Amino acid sequence: MPDVATQFVVTKEHRRFSELCDAVRRERYIGVCHGPPGVGKTESARRYANWDELQPELRHSTLTNAPGDAVDMKARTIFYTPKVHNTPRLIDKDVRTLQDRLGWLIEFGTAGSNFKLSDVGTSGERLVELLIIDEADRLKTPSLEQLRDHHDRTGIGLILIGMPGIERRLARYPQLYSRIGFAHEYRPLSSDELAFVLEHHWSAIGLTLSPSDFTDAEAVAAVARITGGNFRLVQRLFAQVTRILEINSLATITREVVETAREALIIGTAS
Ligand SMILES: Nc1ncnc2c1ncn2[C@@H]1O[C@H](COP(=O)(O)OP(=O)(O)OP(=O)(O)O)[C@@H](O)[C@H]1O
Ligand SMILES: [Mg+2]
Fold first, then answer.
1. Residues of each domain in the chain carrying CATH 1.10.8
2. CATH class for the region spanning 4-185
């Protein structure tokens, strides 16, 4: 069974985020996605870009390697996280490199054996449709200005992911702000979805969650109260739940087990 901690769940928020990405790609606008820590913004963006598979391909600096057939580049999207101490120059360099290389791969993939090295760089960068910048709160005015300029020059769609309030901060930059076509608030899991995610967690440790069972319902309610539907907190809480079950040789997740697990977490919970 795959590890539940690494299993991606396609949530409603992920669907909405993907719709935002599609729209920004289509219109070549700037979009903003904001939400509190741990709700799943980064995971969603990486998933949309298929970044886990694509990133290793982009490390190659030569064209001797054709992209593996299995690598899905349909999204034509780059995912980039600026360093804490970023500069416009560094961002420009990194983004250009990624965009060029993804452009090559797309050209390579489309042209197949007809691909000629001399074609490189002519139109490659234009084939990349979307640039997603994570942790955009780290960007100061010159870096934002750099990205806005890059968006203008290459016509690439741009999504900035940040914490709540980023949209207000961006309003201070009229040139960038006027290009923002879409804003998306990334919300925590709804209670139905939380129950769905918890079913995965229950089954990962060999248990079956039945919402009609009072003990299970009580345990789920405790998880909902403690985590507020925050994905990261659910993961952390469950690591503790598993530990407590093991230490005490218990076979049932009860409200008490969940509350004991919560005490072990110390910080960062919603209640
Ligand atoms: N769709 C998902 N399916 C499964 N697990 C997920 C999903 N989304 C998030 N997670 C889990 O929640 C954790 C936090 O998600 P993520 O890092 O994407 O949050 P974030 O919104 O980017 O937070 P921050 O603002 O702190 O960067 C992930 O490490 C992962 O374990
Ligand atoms: Mg993140």
1. 191-265
2. alpha beta
Q: What is the DSSP string of the chain?
A: ---GGG-----HHHHHHHHHHHHHHHHT-EEEEE--TTSSHHHHHHHHHTHHHHHHHHT--SSSSPPPTT---TT-EEEE---TT--HHHHHHHHHHHHHHHHHHHHHHHHGGG--GGGTTTSHHHH--EEEESSGGG--HHHHHHHHHHHHHH--EEEEEE-TTHHHHHTT-HHHHTTEEEEEE-PPPPHHHHHHHHHHHHHHTT----TTSHHHHHHHHHHHHHHTT-HHHHHHHHHHHHHHHHHTT-----HHHHHHHHHHH-SS---
Region 191-265: CATH code? 1.10.8
Parts of the chain belonging to CATH 3.40.50.300: 4-185
**Predicted TM-score of the model (pTM):** 0.90
- How does residue 2 score in pLDDT terms, banded at 50, 70 and 90? very low
Residue nearest to atom 29 of ligand 1 (CA): 232
Q: Ligand 1 pocket: which of 6, 232, 238 to mutate (most atoms <8 Å of CB)?
A: 232
pLDDT digits (tens, 9 = 90+) for 119-170: 555 566 678 999 999 999 999 999 999 999 999 999 999 999 999 999 999 9
Tens-digit pLDDT profile for residues 198-250: 999 999 888 899 888 999 999 999 999 999 999 999 999 999 999 999 999 99
CA 170 – ligand 2 centroid, Å: 18
